[in-house]
């Protein structure tokens, strides 16, 4: 099969940084090799910098972003625990599914897809929840939910935040915002292939871990003994993917978080302005619209499947379709990680202009 | 940090095949890209060939081998289900832990570490278990357990077999032996870095899935809709690692399963003969001794930590230490995947001879 390159402008994966692809080819060593442990430790340090936290328990989970979500819930939620979950998209629904499989009493706070959730509604949904959970960036709708007020008003609850599509792309402040558990995925704004889920957990949350997680694989009490000083074997770390994450975080921190956020902002907004000029109608409400992941109604005359096929096969560009009731009518266009470059925006807008030309 | 290469002769990871390292560098595409789906389909086909099965549900789980173990249990075991588990090493213990977190009533069949489990004891341990589970190759002891008689005598039970250290290294016959659920890891005899867990499930087992798995991430009913024709999004596939597994299986099948088994047999036995000549005493009982993973008591005069440090730093060779009560007294030496070459055996034996020389 010929090897084709793509400009990855779907909801993820994004194009990895070149340094990441080089790191993947680094010779594999053992998971207890001093060289690997040094890279793992530095990876965890870099994750602390990117999450803006001093949490000791900060590490890459050995699975994709969804494994991060499951790890976040199964360690703090047990049968009968009350969990308030904000639902304004597919991934909020998924949180409810994951939490209910832990036996949680789920208290949903629904909001229309495309709109942000009012933090006060989350704070007043239950008198004393164990966990309040929300998506920072809803990948299905392109909406950013406010997190900071939740940290201020959470009281005794643990604040659990999905940062899969936000980390590295927009400001995330785990410690300053009072987030207790945050997780992400490697394949969005971090510019690394899919396969790992960065995760950070506050000491406050660790003290409220369930006695025995229903998941052995994602049991953070056990995993922390490998990542920490004890180096006690739990499962074999995914060596090559850790190399890749280490390199991607290095590239991101060398650029600087502020610069990365500014780059995602500039390219995302340029894309959104260009789409509107071409007749696309933006979906997410304006003051909670993510720059790195744009949702837009297709303009008249553009057929979803035809257009995406031509973009892929003729121009080498991937964009994502809408989910659920929006399938066929909406696109999700990512501009994340290494993909978030002005040239890619110009390329996609130019291709769309050609597709829309009479 | 300088990049150091290692000859990986621990219990895993092994050295990946060169074709695998090339595949890791292949450009990342989306998880719904036709090019990726073709590679994923071919990967599943190749897994069917390697597992010797026609099971439709055959796929790589997006986690390491231990995620394969968890996926195997959480889809068929629910609260109160009786599960017979053979325990003659660390990974049998782990099975008990995983199964009990599913709420299973675990019936242990213990055997001394270093000895194989009598299949008749597993078959008669419970009148009507839902699952009988056993390790084909115990990585902690170097022992092979007999699987074929379990398939013959299982009755209504599902036969669940851990093939993490056996698949690709010794004969595994999922269909012919009546195995219902088997899983493996990529980093042993398949010659691929750690990160994925090949898994196969019989139709018989699928019909007896629990109504709703406690794990969302490992819910095979949902995952099968992505791997199958529906292509329904579940989680983002770990693209680069799937490339790597695809390539590793291609290398293995090009060599031929019989040839790979013979190579593991020849190199492993040569290593074992050489170790005995040097004064090591082999641990696993002789007629159930794995070729690909050797356990041996250290000879007098060889200090565990010193010797392993010198092997690693001076010769670039990793071997593994003993686990549990055997730590400091025993080594586990792998000769798996691309590592299973005569030159590596000669190198290790030569290095040990130098270390033992007065």
Any guess at the CATH architecture of the largest domain in chain A?
A: 3-Layer(aba) Sandwich
Largest interface, counted with CB-CB under 8 A? A-B, 63 and 63 residues
Broad CATH class of the largest domain in chain A: Alpha Beta
CATH names the topology of the largest domain in chain A as Aspartate Aminotransferase, domain 2
Q: Return the structural class of chain A.
A: alpha/beta
The biggest beta sheet of chain A is recorded as: 7 strands, mixed
Describe the structure.
The structure is a homodimer of 358-residue chains. Chain A has 12 helices and 14 strands. The first copy, chain A, has 358 residues and is α/β, with parallel strands linked by helices. In chain A, the strands form 3 sheets. A 7-stranded mixed β-sheet of chain A has the order 2-10-9-8-5-3-4, with helices on both faces. The first copy, chain A, has a 5-stranded mixed β-sheet with strand order 1-13-14-12-11, with helices on one face. Chain A has a two-stranded antiparallel ribbon with strand order 6-7. Helix content of chain A is 38%, strand content 16%. In chain A, helix 1 (18-24) runs antiparallel to helix 9 (239-255), helix 10 runs parallel beside helix 12 (342-356) and helix 11 crosses helix 12. Chain A folds into 2 domains: 7-13 and 257-356, Alpha-Beta Complex (Aspartate Aminotransferase, domain 1), CATH 3.90.1150.10; 18-255, Aspartate Aminotransferase, domain 2, CATH 3.40.640. Chains A and B meet through helix 2, helix 3, helix 4 and helix 9 of A and helix 2, helix 3, helix 4 and helix 9 of B.
């Amino acid at each position: 099969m010929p090897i084709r390159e793509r400009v990855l402008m779907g909801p993820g994966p994004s194009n990895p940084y070149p340094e990441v692809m080089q790191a993947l080819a680094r010779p594999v060593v053992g998971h207890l090799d001093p060289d690997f442990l040094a890279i793992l430790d530095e990876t965890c340090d870099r994750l602390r910098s990117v999450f803006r936290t001093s949490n000791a328990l900060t590490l890459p989970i050995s699975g994709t972003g969804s494994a991060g979500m499951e790890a976040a819930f199964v360690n703090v939620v047990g049968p009968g625990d009350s969990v308030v979950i904000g639902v304004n998209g597919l991934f909020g629904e998924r949180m409810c599914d994951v939490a209910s499989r832990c036996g949680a009493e789920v208290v949903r706070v629904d909001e229309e897809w495309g709109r942000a959730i009012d933090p006060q509604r989350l704070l007043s949904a239950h008198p004393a929840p164990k966990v309040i959970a929300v998506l920072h960036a809803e990948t299905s709708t392109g909406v950013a939910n406010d997190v900071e007020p939740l940290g201020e008003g959470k009281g005794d609850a643990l604040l659990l935040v999905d940062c899969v599509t936000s980390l590295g792309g927009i400001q995330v402040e785990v410690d300053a915002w009072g987030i207790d558990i945050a997780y992400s995925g490697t394949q969005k704004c971090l510019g690394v292939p899919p396969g790992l889920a960065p995760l950070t957990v506050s000491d406050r949350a660790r003290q409220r871990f369930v006695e025995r997680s229903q998941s052995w694989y994602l049991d953070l009490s056990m995993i922390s003994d490998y990542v920490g000083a004890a180096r006690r074997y739990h499962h074999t770390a995914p060596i090559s993917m850790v190399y890749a994450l280490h390199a991607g975080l290095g590239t991101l921190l060398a650029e600087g978080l502020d610069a990365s956020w500014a780059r995602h902002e500039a390219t995302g907004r340029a894309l959104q302005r260009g789409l509107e000029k071409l007749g696309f109608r933006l979906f997410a409400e304006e003051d909670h619209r993510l720059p790195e992941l744009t949702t837009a109604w297709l303009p008249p005359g553009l057929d979803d499947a035809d257009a995406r096929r031509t973009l892929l096969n003729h121009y080498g560009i991937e964009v994502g379709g809408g989910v659920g009731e929006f399938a066929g009518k909406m696109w999700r266009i990512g501009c994340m990680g290494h993909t978030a470059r002005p040239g890619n925006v110009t390329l996609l807008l130019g291709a769309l202009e050609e597709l829309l030309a009479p």
